[in-house]
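Sharing a chain and its predicted structure for anyone who wants a worked example. Both blocks are below, sequence first, C-alpha cells second.
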Amino acid sequence: MSEALKPLSWYRDLGETAGRREAGCFLVEGERAIRQVVKQQPDGIVELVTSGEVPPDLSDYAVRTLTERQVKSVSGSVTPQGMLAVVRLPEDCESATLPAAMGTHILLLERVQDPGNAGTLLRTAAAFGYDGAILSAECADPFSPKVVQAAAGTVLSLWTRRTEGYLSLAMQLQRRGYRLVATALDGNADTSLLKADKLVLAPGNDARGLRDGRRVAADATRGTPIARE
C-alpha cells in the first residue's frame, strides 16, 4: 500500500474477482476472522480498516479509520462488523501447478457455486486438518467476501488452486499415490478408504453432484463427511 490514501472504491472493488486480481488482495471482515488470519499468515495483512478502536495486539498493523457509514459501504455486508482487513492473496491460488508442499489430505471441489457452501466446506476441511483445496473454475471464488465469511477466516489455513485444470491436478495426485474418494448418494465404498495416508476427497456439486467422468476416475465413491477417520 502506498502512503496516499486509497479511494473507498478501491476497497469496494475487492468484492469482485477482477478487483482482487488487480490489487492482489482480498477482504476479511470481523475481528474474530481477522485474528484467524493473523494466526495463519500474520505477514499477509496489509491494512486494517475500522470505524472504532483497534485492539492493542493488532495495533502494529497499518490502520485506516473510517466512519461507520463508510465502513458499511466498503463492506457490502448487511450487518458490518466494524473492522476489516486487507489481506494479500496467496501466490499461485489460480495456478494449475501443485505446490511443493502438498500435505496428505486435500479437498477437491467441482462446481460448488454457492459461496456459503464453498466457505463451509473449506472451513470444515481446515478444522479436520486438511492441507489444501483444489477448486474447478466454476466454483465460487474462495476469496470472495461471502466465501471468506462462511469460512470464518480459515481460508488461509489451506493452500488453494482454483483452475480449469483441476482434473489434471487431481490425476497428478493420483499418480503420486493419493487415493481419490468421491462422495455420492449412491456410493458404497468401504469407509476404510478414508484412512488412506494420502487422500483427495471430492464432495459433489451443490445440486447435481460430480460429473460422471470424475466419478469414473475416482478410486471409490462414498456418501461420507469430510472428517478424517
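Comments welcome. The radius of gyration is 19 Å.
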